[in-house]
From TrEMBL:
Keywords: Lyase, Membrane, Transmembrane, Transmembrane helix
Superkingdom, natural source: Bacteria
Residues covered by the Golvesin/Xly CBD-like domain: 981-1102
InterPro entries given in the database record: CBD-like_Golvesin-Xly (IPR033803)
Transmembrane stretches, start-end: 22-43, 63-81, 118-137, 143-168, 175-192, 228-246, 258-277
Stated name of the protein: Xanthan lyase XalB
Species name: Bacteroides caccae
Pfam families found in the cross-reference section: Golvesin_C
GO molecular function, one term: lyase activity
Length: 1105
């Protein structure tokens, strides 16, 4: 008791000193004030937006508050904790303890506990304020406040206080201690972040700590182990401090127990760190072992299963299942291969009541039927099994860096899970292989593993008392609480969810639309109470729009939106856009829509009403506001793209990327309705779905930011590597859609030329609709389409195993002539010349648009056409139109042109009379579009264009502007933050014969230059021009003025020339007229300019006489 009493005495004295510290008082006032303001904005203010993830899941409120407080107190604790050793040197502050019989342990522990408990008290005050505000919304997760306090605040404070006093004792220099610790905090928060599996994240910034209202924490072992690392490390530093503290002249033996205890505690901390890293790396080894097993059995005989009969019984922590499968042998054999999640234990296998021998090799189950089955013979087999799902078996095709990438919303880090098994909730999707399937799982050696077929499913489920199961088909329950599900159509897979579900449903067009939410999670009904009768028409609008866009109807009788834990995640695959979040007839949506800010429907309705008042507009009604809110919600399922991510590299360079929308409904109308399979090309289904979505023809508005589009990157990769090689390169998974989309477009291009683009697409749609819920062999499908289009499409598959040679095109400017004939008849004649200057044949796509808002597309089938361009050939296109044409867009498709989509406006219209013109395509000799007497030097001419060497900078700027390695030459440029070095980018408003590119640099003092060496063919008078490009800085600010400074060097002369960018037109702008008597003229552009950036593109000289 004396030991504890002494500690308490020291702690009491230290706490008083800390509370009296103005430094701590200021921090306390700020912490309480900021917390109160933040809670007011979160819970009371109507003007806040964007924190639905905190409001929807009550446990996220203490998580967010303590995470923010933890950042500040971790810094303040360094100053205050390390200060007590400095104060000890002043006897007037510690004299009372030096005359008492205190051991070093009592003194040090008392000091630390005195500091720690003041901080812990501050945490409790902050949590109390938050609880008071939290009570205003009525839903409080009381246990979460305690858990996050113990998981976030306590380990962080113990660690940082222990580390502070230890370093102070060792270094004996408070300033140096501060520098080291603040540097450590900055390094972990801003640089290391979640690197090294968030091992160094002592403040729990990157640790997945979101607690679901459905399943709670899904990663308890990881959380407890991670926080134990820093709690134990903090204790070890405290024990080291006790052993090293020289306050009393103790004998060295008295320090041995504390040294031993500190070493043991530190070893435990290191062991926890090792286990943390090892458990993650071990997952990779386990997944590799599963893949090797799949490779071993991928070519073994298997069945085509056409009927599944399930019986599933939910238990407290696992499930029991019996599955009978009926199918046809695809090969002659007595032993057939099945795949089942390795976490599940097979109890027995039989056929028509007769036990069968089976062999289990991890996930593989080899069943011996005891007699040889000939190819085409029918067979029946029944599995009885139970257990828990092993998550390590899921997503074997996804690279580790993608699996380990954080799932984050604002400051909330969310764990990633693929299934759930608790006493209150069960979720099983096809990716888990929760039921036996013929063949193997993912193989990286043989694509034949991937064959899936339509099957009929019949499912019986016995859930735990009070829970409701959900699956495909209509669910019916009997008096024993057993639910039966039977689908209306065959399906490739089946899913199962069991929870305390409640249903809200509505019918529209003979389809039952349901929202299945957990009890107490109905946050939307009251917010949409005025539009119950209007909702069917709003749903119909989205369904009809999808049908118009893709010419495919929703085939099922039901559509269910099912609430699942926020930790549930899926991934896009190389062979399909369908993610696990979308299943036949259902979408698995995160609890309360917590990941989407606009799901705060009550606040959204209020915002729509408030926003309607802006700009002297009339305030909309409550019903209209609710309709807009519901529309925003349902249109999410029609969007192809999800989140947009902007990442910045070196200064001025950036990359904007988009994620696939995991809730996009296209799989409902295509993937779950059609099954196109190929043993050689498992990507077959993906080829068709991307072709139907016209993915490869979308230039993408992101290219202006990125400097090069993903489609163009895909084309450049296809020139160097085969399509087959690119498909298996996991480092290029972000470009998979673009690579496949480009090849899909190329595969059907000649058929589109023969039939017309829309006519060929209509034929493909007709073929698909004749094979609804049937298995279609890819090669047979191509043969059928080839017969219809009189094209040998199938033979083009051979090109997928070769690199793709790229043609290059020169494009003339389109001209438009208005012709008026006798009688007043008027029409427009469009002419355009395009030349293929390469050794390779190619195909281009021409899109002609008329006048109107954003250049309206023409309904005439001639407006969208593909044209074959033989090597070294020019074609002049002449077409007659009733409407005035304003824009022609040329998509050079798989070519070496950059950008590959060139949009050209037609601003001038010629006038002629009395002419007869017909649509024609004239084949002409190859043209380079070079004009006589004109010499052009572009920045792409490596021998004639020179950039100055980059400036020498210090280590810090060099580190901040480090250039990321990339296989692509061109980068995105932002005019508001230009690059410090000359950086190549592309834009269709730059000059370029084939590649329209330029170099951009931040404006400077004139020391950085770009030099064009222009060959002069003969002595004479020449006009010198520069190709001007105006970026958005000039376009958006009419008051800006700036000019480019050139030096024209010829012979012994050096003359200055200027271009006023405000007055100049885009395109060729004359710099002056010169008499050149030397064979080379050097035109030098400096980086001296009042604008933010300088662009180096092209120069030309034109001989006058």
């Amino acid at each position: 008791m004396t030991f504890l009493s002494n500690i308490q005495s020291v702690a009491k004295y230290e706490s008083k000193l800390l509370i009296r510290s103005w430094f701590f008082r200021v921090f306390t006032v700020l912490a309480i004030g900021i917390t109160t303001l933040f809670n007011f904005l979160l819970f009371v203010s109507e003007d806040t937006y964007g924190f639905w993830i905190a409001m929807s899941i009550p446990s996220n409120i203490p998580y967010l508050i303590l995470l923010l407080l933890n950042t500040g107190q971790a810094v303040i604790a360094i100053f205050l904790a390390s200060d007590f050793l400095k104060r000890d040197k002043k006897l007037d502050t510690s004299e009372v303890f030096y005359v008492r019989p205190l051991s070093n342990a009592e003194y040090v522990i008392g000091k630390i506990w005195g500091n720690l408990r003041v901080f812990l008290l501050l945490n409790l005050i902050i949590m109390g304020i938050t609880m008071a505000f939290n009570l205003t919304v009525g839903e409080v997760d009381w246990i979460a406040y305690l858990l996050y306090f113990l998981l976030i605040s306590v380990p962080t404070l113990v660690f940082i206080i222990g580390l502070s006093i230890f370093l102070m004792l060792v270094l004996k220099n408070q300033a140096l201690t501060f520098v080291i610790l603040l540097g450590y905090i900055g390094l972990t928060v801003f640089y290391i972040e979640d690197k090294f599996y968030y091992l160094f994240d002592y403040m729990a910034y990157s640790l997945p700590l979101v607690k679901s209202t459905i399943v709670g924490f899904s990663n308890w072992e990881v959380i407890l182990n991670h926080r134990a690392i820093y709690f134990l490390a903090g204790l070890a530093f405290v024990f080291f401090t006790i052993s090293l503290f020289r306050r009393l002249p103790h004998s060295s033996r008295s320090n041995y127990p504390w040294v031993f205890l500190s070493v043991c505690t530190l070893l435990l901390s290191l062991a926890c760190g090792y286990w943390h890293v090892h458990s993650i790396l071990c997952q990779g080894d386990i997944r590799a072992a599963y893949t090797r097993v799949n490779n071993q059995y991928v070519a073994t005989p298997k069945l085509f299963i056409h009927q599944y009969d399930f019986s599933v019984e939910q238990r407290l922590d696992d499930f029991l299942s019996e599955v009978t499968m009926r199918g046809v042998a695809l090969d002659s054999s007595a032993v057939f291969t099945f795949c089942l999640n390795p976490g599940l234990t097979v109890r027995s296998v039989d056929s028509d009541g007769q036990p069968l021998k089976f062999k289990r090799d991890k996930q593989i189950v080899l069943v011996d039927f005891g007699t040889n089955l000939a190819k085409g013979d029918t067979a029946s087999v029944t599995f009885k099994y139970d257990g828990q799902i092993d998550n390590s078996f899921c997503y074997l095709d996804i690279p580790p860096e993608v699996l380990q990438a954080s799932k984050k919303k604002f400051l909330f880090n969310i764990d990633k899970q693929y299934c759930f098994q608790t006493k209150d909730y069960l979720l099983l999707t096809p990716e888990t292989y929760w039921y036996p399937r013929a063949g193997t799982g993912y193989s990286d050696e043989n694509p034949d593993w991937q064959q899936t077929y339509f099957s009929n499913y019949h499912l019986k489920v016995k859930p735990l008392a009070g829970l409701v199961p959900l699956s495909q088909g209509e669910g019916k329950s009997d008096e024993h609480g057993v639910y039966t599900f039977k689908g209306d159509f065959p399906s490739q897979t089946i899913s199962l969810a069991i929870g305390d579900y409640q249903q809200k449903s509505i019918s529209a067009d003979s389809i039952l639309y349901s929202i299945w939410h957990l009890k107490g999670h109905d946050f939307f009904s009251a917010a949409l109470d005025s539009i119950h009768d209007t909702i069917p028409s709003l749903i119909r609008n989205v369904k009809d729009q999808l049908a118009r866009n893709y010419k495919l109807d929703y085939p099922f009788k039901r559509f269910s939106l099912i609430e699942v834990p926020i930790q549930f995640v899926g991934y896009e695959r190389a062979w399909s856009q369908a993610q696990e979040t979308v299943q036949p007839e259902m979408v698995l949506f995160p609890e309360k829509g917590a990941l989407f800010d606009d799901m705060d429907m009550k606040k959204q309705v209020q915002n729509h009403i408030r926003w309607s008042r802006y700009g002297d507009r009339n305030e909309i009604s409550l019903q209209e506001a609710q309709m807009r809110t519901f529309n925003n919600f349902i249109w999410r399922f029609a969007q192809t793209e999800g989140n947009y991510n902007f990442s910045s590299g070196s200064r001025g360079k950036g990359n904007l990327s988009s994620e696939a929308n995991p809730y996009f409904l296209f799989p409902q109308i295509y993937n779950f309705r059609y099954n196109i399979f190929s043993s050689e090309w498992p990507v077959a289904n993906r080829v068709i779905e991307l072709y139907l979505q016209k993915k490869s023809e979308n230039g993408g508005w992101e290219r202006q930011i990125n400097g090069i589009s993903n489609n163009e990157k895909a084309v450049l990769l296809l020139e160097k590597r085969t399509f087959k090689e690119l498909l298996v390169d996991m480092e290029l998974r972000n470009l998979q859609n673009n690579i496949v989309g480009q090849e899909a477009s190329r595969l059907f291009a000649r058929a589109e030329i023969n039939m017309g683009v829309e006519a060929f697409r209509d034929s493909l749609y007709s073929l698909l609709k004749r094979n609804t819920f049937l298995n279609i062999k890819f090669e047979n499908m191509l043969d059928t389409l080839g017969e219809i289009s009189r094209t040998d499409i199938r033979s083009l598959l051979g090109e997928w195993e070769k690199t793709t040679p790229l043609p290059f095109y020169s494009l003339g400017e389109p001209t438009l002539t208005k012709i008026t004939n006798k009688g007043g008849e008027e029409f427009f004649v469009l002419k355009m010349l395009i030349s293929n200057n390469s050794d390779y044949d190619g195909i281009i796509h021409m899109d002609i648009r008329k006048d109107g808002w954003w250049y309206q597309p023409l309904e005439d089938p001639r407006a969208k056409t593909k044209i074959e361009m033989p090597a070294h050939t020019s074609k002049e296109f002449v077409s007659v139109w009733e409407d005035q044409i304003r824009n022609v867009e040329i998509n050079t498709m798989v070519s070496g042109n950059l950008p590959n989509i060139i949009s050209q406006d037609i601003n001038n219209v010629k006038q002629e009379r009395n002419k007869i013109v017909k649509d024609s395509i004239y084949i002409l000799p190859e043209s380079s579009f070079d004009l006589p007497g004109e010499i052009i030097v572009d920045n792409e001419d490596s021998t004639l264009f020179i950039l100055s060497a980059p400036p020498i900078v210090g280590l810090l700027p060099k580190w901040l502007d480090e250039v990321e390695e990339t296989p692509f030459k061109y980068s995105g440029i932002s005019w508001w933050r230009p690059p410090l070095q000359w950086t190549a980018t592309t834009n269709d408003r730059y000059y370029g014969k084939y590649i329209r590119s330029a170099f951009v640099i931040k404006s400077g003092d004139g020391s950085q230059t770009a030099t064009w060496k222009v060959p002069v063919p003969e002595v004479g008078q020449y006009d010198l021009y520069y190709h001007v490009f105006k970026d958005d800085e000039l376009r958006w600010n009419n008051n800006l003025q700036g000019e480019y400074h050139f030096k024209v060097k010829y012979g012994s002369e050096v003359e200055d020339a200027y271009v006023n960018l405000r007055k100049a037109n885009e395109g060729w702008e004359q710099l002056g007229s010169y008499y050149f008597d030397s064979d080379t003229v050097r035109v030098v552009l400096t980086d001296e300019c009042k604008l933010r950036s300088v662009t180096a593109d092209a120069v030309k000289i034109v001989k006058r006489y």
